Amino acid sequence: MVELNCETDFVGRNEAFIQLAKDVALHVYAAKPKYLRREDVPAEALEAPDVTSPEQYYEDYVLLDQPFVRNPSQTISQMLTETIAKTRENIVIGRYVRFEIGA
């Protein structure tokens, strides 16, 4: 489940906005991000012995830095920026949650 915020209901009904919401939800399901943005990552997570580089950790676990599962050459942040350019309105991923049954 993804909370995607925009400034007007006009954009909320826009096909590009709706597709972004679907794509981000699909990505959250498939990629299992732990954090929304870099600022959300606790310092202890980056200092763990198995972390080889902070950049790689961000790419693996931060939603906005992850490559999109359907198009790995584009990050979620880039998709967001692209949709903002199309709609000419600010769009923000407010939060997300991933449910898994039987895990």
What do you see in this structure?
By secondary structure, the chain is of the alpha+beta class. It has a single domain (2-96), classed as Elongation factor Ts, dimerisation domain (Tetrahydropterin Synthase, Chain A, 2-Layer Sandwich). 44% of the residues lie in helices and 17% in strands. It contains 5 helices and 4 strands. It has helices spanning 9-12, 15-31, 43-46, 54-61, 76-87; strands spanning 2-6, 67-68, 71-75, 91-96. It has a two-stranded antiparallel sheet with strand order 1-4. Strand 2 and strand 3 (71-75) form a beta hairpin. Helix 2 runs antiparallel to helix 5. The longest helix is centred in the N-terminal third of the chain and has 17 residues, at 15-31. The chain is globular, with a radius of gyration of 15 Å. The mean pLDDT is 96. One of its GO terms (molecular function) is translation elongation factor activity. Its main location: cytoplasm. Belongs to the EF-Ts family. Associates with the EF-Tu.GDP complex and induces the exchange of GDP to GTP. It remains bound to the aminoacyl-tRNA.EF-Tu.GTP complex up to the GTP hydrolysis stage on the ribosome. It comes from uncultured Chloroflexia bacterium.
Q: Tell me the β content.
A: 15-25%
- Architecture (CATH level 2) name: 2-Layer Sandwich
Instruction: Report the order of strands and helices.
Output: EHHHHEEHE
Average residue-wise pLDDT: 96
Any idea what the shape is? globular
Helicity, as a percent range: 40-55%
